[in-house]
Design brief:
Elements: H1 2-15, H2 20-53, H3 62-77, H4 85-95, H5 99-129, H6 135-162, E1 166-170, E2 188-192, H7 195-209, H8 211-224, H9 227-236, E3 251-253, E4 260-262
Antiparallel strand pairs: 1-2, 3-4
Length: about 270
């Protein structure tokens, strides 16, 4: 509801300005550019591992794969422009935009602070900019940020378990419960999502976080060969005495690809 009110306030404010059509065009051009900027980073982060590291698309050029992903995602995004678009936006906002992001951010902190190590990260930053980050940042990477993320995750999870997320619904001028009661035309109510929508929302959450344990198990089992060695390799990944050759972290071109990839020795 607050998101809807902010959206109405922005459009109403633009309509009151002198030369409102011009400012409206600038406003929506800005939104398009913001979306494109986010899309470039998101698409690269998804396509690059699939094309270069996993080689799922064989010898197909990365540009073609990126174009295919963009077209498919564009067609999927058209669902949000239909009559139930606002309902779907609220469903994704209630499920896909909170718990999965918290879990992904938590694993990123674990990867930086405990797997790769804060010492190695500090060396990498020093190698790039000439000085190490302060001790405050290393403490945040290793303790403060993961702790806060875990706390926020449990609070969000408990809130969603105690009460189902709701969406804003418009109701008619005539109240169906009390036909003689006339309500304003902009009257809205908060309606909980149906059981089917809640199940779909949790499926979205599971699909969003599933690649983390799935690819960790696949990669570790392929290296270790058996489950016992696999579990041992995970335990060894948090050892403090691991050292990395900083020269191996530089990007180098790979034959058959124009994009850089990380040295396989890392």
């Amino acid at each position: 509801k607050q998101w809807y009110q902010r959206r109405v306030a922005i459009t109403a404010g633009v309509s009151e300005m002198k030369g409102a059509p011009v400012w409206a065009c600038f406003f929506f051009i800005m939104l398009i550019l913001l979306g494109l900027d986010s899309e470039f980073g998101t698409l690269e982060g998804a396509v690059t591992p699939l094309v270069i590291d996993m080689k799922l698309f064989g010898k197909i050029r990365k540009e073609i794969v990126s174009a295919g992903f963009a077209i498919v995602l564009c067609l999927m995004g058209l669902l949000f422009c239909t009559g139930i678009g606002e309902y779907l936006v609220g469903l994704f906002d209630s499920y896909a935009m909170n718990i999965p992001i918290l879990i992904l951010a938590l694993f990123e902190c674990i990867a930086v602070g405990w797997v790769f190590g804060t010492d190695n990260m500090s060396l990498a930053i020093e190698d790039m900019q000439g000085s190490k980050p302060s001790k405050f940042f290393t403490i945040c990477w290793k303790y403060i940020s993961p702790g806060l993320l875990i706390l926020i995750f449990f609070i969000t999870f408990v809130q969603q378990m105690m009460a189902a997320p709701k969406y804003t619904s418009f109701i008619d001028c005539v109240n169906s419960t009390h036909p003689n009661s006339i309500l304003p035309t902009n009257q809205t109510i908060e309606v909980p999502y149906s059981i089917g929508a809640q199940i779909a929302g949790w499926i979205i959450v599971i699909l969003a976080i599933m690649p983390i344990p799935l690819f960790m198990i696949i990669n570790r089992k392929s290296e270790a060969g058996q489950m016992g060695a696999f579990l041992k390799s995970i335990a060894n990944s948090v050892r403090k005495d691991r050292e990395y050759n900083m020269e191996s972290l530089y990007y180098r071109p790979q034959q058959g690809h124009d994009s850089p990839v990380v040295n396989e020795k890392v």
